[in-house]
Amino acid sequence: MKILVIGAGAREHAIVRALYRSPQQKNIFCLASNTNPGIAELCDEIFIGNFNDSEFVVSYANEVNATLAIVGPENPLANGIADALWKAGVKVIGPKKDLAQIETSKAFTRNLQSDYMIPGSPKYRTFLSLDGVTDFLNELGKNFVVKYDGLAGGKGVKVAGDHLHSHDDAIAYCLELMAKGGEFVIEEKLIGQEFSLMSFCDGEHLIHMPAVQDHKRAYEGDTGPNTGGMGTYSDANHSLPFLTVEDISHSHAINIATAKALKEKFGEGYKGILYGGFMATADGVKLIEYNARFGDPEAMNVLPLLDSDFIDICQGITDGALDQIDVQFKNKATVCKYAVPEGYPDNPIKGEPIDVSKIENPNRLFYASVDIQDGQLVEAGSRTVAVVGIADSITEAEKVAENEVSAVKGPLFHRTDIGTDELIQKRIDHMKSLRQ
Ligand code: AMP
Ligand code: GLY
């Protein structure tokens, strides 16, 4: 079996490792934007090229005779890479362009929730002009969020109290978005704790992965600018310490209802990873957004726990036979921490050497934005490397992850607080205070 992986960050390193662990005969190829040494070691070839160019991806897939492709990042999906590959006879983990709107358009997702009565939507409205904006902001009061209706690398969402401090601020941002020439969404600000719940989906059947909590802010105590995610944790029971059994089952139900709605709407099912970003609130679980791919760092929490053959799961997804696959995740806790360049995310340094030789367990090290220059591992400007601790409790997993991430030498920083008892207690106390 010849498998093509698209993308070369830590998420894709986790995907390649999961494929590599399969006992099946396989050759793995990777289309990458940078030389990821972890991926290079496990693949037959890592080829640097523009994976946002569908024609190029199809020609490479043909050249290596790939029969299965796994798409890591969202941009190729937004460009219709799945449509192009299926057409060329390559099965794909990742939805076609229409179905990828679940990630690429915030308005699409909210309208789908509303049209198909999928639970968990905040109050929302979509706009093309300022008509009705003031009235709707008045209806929401101080709890509002303004979202650009397209992919913006996590920078299109502005939240009241965080980035916007008045209705005037909100209107100024709406004007900015109108100048870009697109639709925008205003919705109720949800108050609670965020978590990620990803499901394997074959168009019809879903298998849910353990819940994970990400930390988007750059600095300790959830301060500083938003990032791609500084670290994540998951618990041995596959829930999270601040969630109830109902919270988990509601998030499962929302993913199931969304997959069903997509199939009804397009007459064709969603094949790939359906990643719900949820908020546990006083009023139950609400949907913040969908992503059409594995989370990064979330993939590094869940894929190492997979006891089942990942290639079997991929075949189940592409062939609509996921109900026949027994998927098991270990009952272990995980903590993932990223080491990122000094200055990240606003002014990251680049090209500086790093040293990972002191890491105790290289199997739990995931390379991300790195390159090789003159035989030396250097920072490439975004999140650099991630490490994962796996243990019976979050407390123990955190100690492992902290030890390992501290062993990475170079001009880097990481969040020491992710996964600590103190931060987790804060999450539990916050939810308790909301539920009173
Ligand atoms: P998104 O690009 O949709 O992931 O949004 C980025 C971040 O904005 C989310 O991770 C949340 O922290 C925040 N956010 C988005 N929508 C809402 C909402 N309705 N209420 C509160 N926070 C939100
Ligand atoms: N963990 C955030 C993301 O993958 O989008």
What do these coordinates show?
With 436 residues, the chain is an alpha+beta fold. The chain has three domains: 2-96, Rossmann fold (3-Layer(aba) Sandwich), CATH 3.40.50; 123-188, ATP-grasp fold, A domain (Dna Ligase, domain 1, 2-Layer Sandwich); 193-426, D-amino Acid Aminotransferase, Chain A, domain 1, CATH 3.30.470.20. 32% of the residues lie in helices and 26% in strands. The chain is built from 14 helices and 23 strands. The protein has helices at 10-21, 37-42, 54-63, 74-78, 81-87, 101-104, 106-115, 133-140, 167-180, 245-266, 298-302, 310-319, 394-406, 421-435, and strands at 2-6, 27-32, 45-48, 68-71, 91-93, 124-127, 144-148, 157-159, 184-188, 192-202, 206-208, 213-214, 217-219, 223-226, 231-234, 271-281, 284-291, 333-341, 365-367, 370-373, 376-379, 385-391, 412-413. Strands 12, 15, 18, 19, 22 and 23 form a six-stranded antiparallel β-sheet that branches. It has a five-stranded parallel β-sheet with strand order 3-2-1-4-5, sandwiched between helices. Strand 13 and strand 14 form a beta hairpin. The radius of gyration is 21 Å and the shape is globular. The model has no long low-confidence stretch (mean pLDDT 96). The structure holds adenosine monophosphate and glycine. Adenosine monophosphate binds next to strand 8 and strand 17.
- The CATH topology of the largest domain turns out to be D-amino Acid Aminotransferase, Chain A, domain 1
Helix content: 25-40%
What overall form do the CA principal axes indicate? globular
Write out the distinct hetero groups bound to the structure: adenosine monophosphate, glycine
**Radius of gyration (Å):** 21 Å
The average pLDDT score comes to: 96
Could you describe the largest sheet, including whether it forms a barrel?
6 strands, antiparallel
How much of the sequence lies in strands comes to 25-35%
**Could you name the CATH class of the largest domain?**
Alpha Beta
Instruction: Count structural domains.
Output: 3
**How many separate helices?**
14
Number of strands: 23
CATH architecture assignment name of the largest domain? 2-Layer Sandwich
Uncertain spans = none
CATH H level of the largest domain: which superfamily? ATP-grasp fold, B domain
Would you tell me the structural class of the helices and strands? alpha+beta
N-to-C span: 54 Å
